[in-house]
Write a structure and sequence with these properties.
The complex is a heterodimer of chains A (about 290) and B (about 325). Chain A has about 290 residues and is an all-alpha fold. Chain A has two domains: about 1-70, no CATH class; about 75-285, Orthogonal Bundle (MetI-like fold), CATH 1.10.3720.10. Chain A has 15 helices and no strands. In chain A, helix 4 (about 75-110) packs antiparallel against helix 13 (about 235-240) and helix 14 (about 250-270) crosses helix 15 (about 270-285). The model of chain A is unreliable at about 1-5 (pLDDT under 50). By secondary structure, chain B is an all-alpha fold. Chain B has two domains: about 1-60, no CATH class; about 75-314, MetI-like (MetI-like fold). Helix content of chain B is about 75%, strand content about 0%. Chain B is built from 14 helices and no strands. In chain B, helix 1 packs across helix 2 (about 15-60) and helix 8 (about 175-200) runs antiparallel to helix 12 (about 250-255). The relative contact order of chain B is 0.11. The model of chain B is unreliable at about 1-10 (pLDDT under 50). Classes of the chains: A mainly alpha (about 290), B mainly alpha (about 325). At the A-B interface, helix 1, helix 2, helix 4, helix 5 and helix 6 of A face helix 2, helix 5, helix 6, helix 8 and helix 9 of B.
Chain lengths: ~290, ~325
Amino acid sequence: MRKTLSPGLSNYSTRTLKLVLLYAIVVVGLMFFCIPVYYMITTSFKGEWEVIAIPIHWIPQEFKPSNYTEAFKIAPFARYFYNSVLVAVVVVFTTLFFSALAGYGFAKYSFPGQRICFLFVLSTIMIPFQVLLIPLYVVVYSLGWTNSYAGLIIPGAISAFGVFMMRQFCLTLPNELLDAARIDGCSEIGIFLRIVLPLLKPPLASLAILTFLGSWNNFLWPLIVVNKSHLFTLPVGMTVFTQPLRAPYWTYIMAVSTVATLPVVLVFVTLQRYFIQGVVLSGMRG
Amino acid sequence: MAQQQVSLRADTKRSGIQTALRHNLIFRRGIYGILFIAPAMIFFLVFNLYPMVNGFYLSLTNYTLLRPPRFIGLGNFIGLASNTQFINGLKVTGLFVLGTTIPKWILSLGLALLFIRQFRGRETFKVIYFTPTLLSGVVISLVWKLLLHPSGLVSALAQPFTGKSEVFWLAHSSITPIALIAVDNWAGIPFYIIIWIAGLVGIPREFYEASLIDGAGRWQAFWRITLPLLRPTTLFVIVISTIGSFQAFSLQYIMTRGGPSNVTTTIALLVYNYGFNYFRMGVAAAMSVFMFAVIITLTLIQIRSVRAEETSYT
């Protein structure tokens, strides 16, 4: 694009200048976006005394990896971590299964009321969570699910966006394939489990990442639905740890922050393509 | 299953009764469709539709979790109009939305325009730019709370300009809102860079080549080709970022608790406070209904504009 746009600027020194300028902007931006993350990781290895030291310690002087083990002793972060993993894993599996099932049902069967039901799903996507907060809490409260795993997991167990996404992908599956399976005597549920689900792997991977991120990073819902420490998820537990009246142990907080980010980084590194897709989709879901 | 096969095969020979049978077959298969969507539909009824309708109802009551709801008409909404906290929340939210949308659009588009050029190390840079997106809202808030500590990293870096060794970034009525806006921009820009790049890559090069032949400069090409063809992406970015900023909660809750003196108490934070600190669910529900009205308007504007876009292309 550069070449086609600027044939008049083939002058060597102008081009070099422009390239230098481009790198300067990119590198300044890079520092802006990365220093906070770098600072989080280095602080997690510092001694408490050097967190607020002047001049700034860019590299920990008292290298203290024991922050990580000490942080997990000072508060039940292991428990919070376990809760977060449990909730995320269950939510991912229920979302994938039921979204694929419903999406397939919408795409490949016809039945009365189908259009209305699908419109209902579409409008459900548009409901912002902030608006559901109070009445959803009331529902969970009257079901007696506050302070329980059910309260943490079930309200997020199926996503309307997931149903919509799976329906769009199921529409592209050839009917001949499904009919062939029927002729071979495969039951309808068997077709879904043995033929449709394996074909949906790529979109399911994106949906899994998107759902995992949503659950892992979710803060508002667990904050209101549980107030017993043994049920806290990691984000809630970390926040309680920094409440105004507590002395903030910054090194420990940064250690736990780093640990809380690791699973996301792991998913990012192993499934980069699906990851970016998932993040973009999560933005679209709003 | 065997029965179904027979009826299908016979269908080709005779019509009439067989067509009816075939319809019957498709209808019977449709039962599986109903069966497959049933769990999801029941779920959405219980956890989406019912709460939403109930939310509208609760906004017309004086519900407090402990006391059963009593209908009070539009009382809560009338109360909001003179509720100084709510009016303050509107101002705070408005400022936050302005500060976290327009700069985000411009900066992320600018960086995206750089990233569609060819230069060495581009892909690596792109991946590293993505880093803030990996952090959760809570981690972002905690890290920045440390960075914005009165004698923390930001104070140290800004010392040549401020001349002070201690700046109370998060306890100053005019600096704090700006500090939170800056943090939100930091966290959001990388995401929008990715979105813009996806949009920019979709513009055919031929358009630029043609404009070059017609003697258009680079600025002209940007205003006349890039921006018009980016319209769907632009609409998406504008609506998504506005809706997101409008619901801002975790930054304010974790970094400042709405303080100092409520200069960062957004409406979302007010909903939380009224619902779960004061237990005034009715008022909180009324505020939610207000938020819903704003958000749904934005969403509908986006949907309508995108539709208009599709027809105008052809």
